[in-house]
Amino acid sequence: MIGFSEEPAAPFGAKLDKAAFLAWVQAQEGRYELKDGAIVMHAGSTRRHAQVCARFIASFISRLDANMWAVTTADFAVEIGDDVRYPDALVEAAAGLVPDAVSTAQPALLLEVLSPSSAGRDLNVKVGEYTSLPSLQCYIVASQDEAIVWVWQRDASGAFAKIATEIKGLDGVIEVEALGIILPLAEIYRGMT
To answer: pTM of this prediction?
Structure first.
């Protein structure tokens, strides 16, 4: 869906800039993103998708020092150049955060949980977008159907690998070196596989 005819600030088919989109989206119900100036609507998710997201968020919160790191959900935007995305979860440095902010351009970790409608975007388009952010240290894409994740992390030279590290099975673990945490897949997927 692109734009809305009943919205004077965003007539049907009109292109929006990032500032106009962020102002507009605050008054909307549902999930939207801004891609190439167009408003993109996203469908709701399954219970399994929501559970995987919630378990990752709980794992981040339980392992990260709240004085150093802030963990937020899909309600908080990430600015990527002129585009705006809403990842399923993000972690950013806590120092100097503005409590009333509606977005960040400096995430340290981003998480997307796959849906049938998002797989191509999450595993292809967003890899390039997210890894272009200088602050990003880790991008995780997780299956909602089985214990499998794909992880992109910066290496010692500061570059991201072109191909994700695939971690499978309940005995798999995600090690996020930059944040100093280990996430066992058994904790995320227990009772779901």
So the answer is: 0.83
- Taken in order 121, 76, 26, 82, the sign of the CA dihedral is negative
Is residue 127 within 8 Å of residue 139, measured between CB atoms?
A: yes
**Rounded CA gap, 1 and 39, in Å?**
7
Distance separating alpha carbons of residues 93 and 101, to the nearest angstrom = 14
The per-residue pLDDT for 42 is 67
Beta carbons of 7 and 24 less than 8 angstroms apart: yes
Are 50 and 182 a contacting pair, CB within 8 Å? no
Longest Cα separation, the chain: 53
- Amino acid at position 40, single letter: V
List C-alpha distances in Å: 18 to 6, 107, 170: 20, 17, 40
Q: Report whether 89 contacts 71 (CB < 8 A).
A: yes
Q: Compute, in degrees rounded to 10, the torsion defined by CA atoms 100, 102, 106, 110.
A: 120
Q: Is residue 21 very low, low, confident or very high in pLDDT (cuts 50, 70, 90)?
A: confident
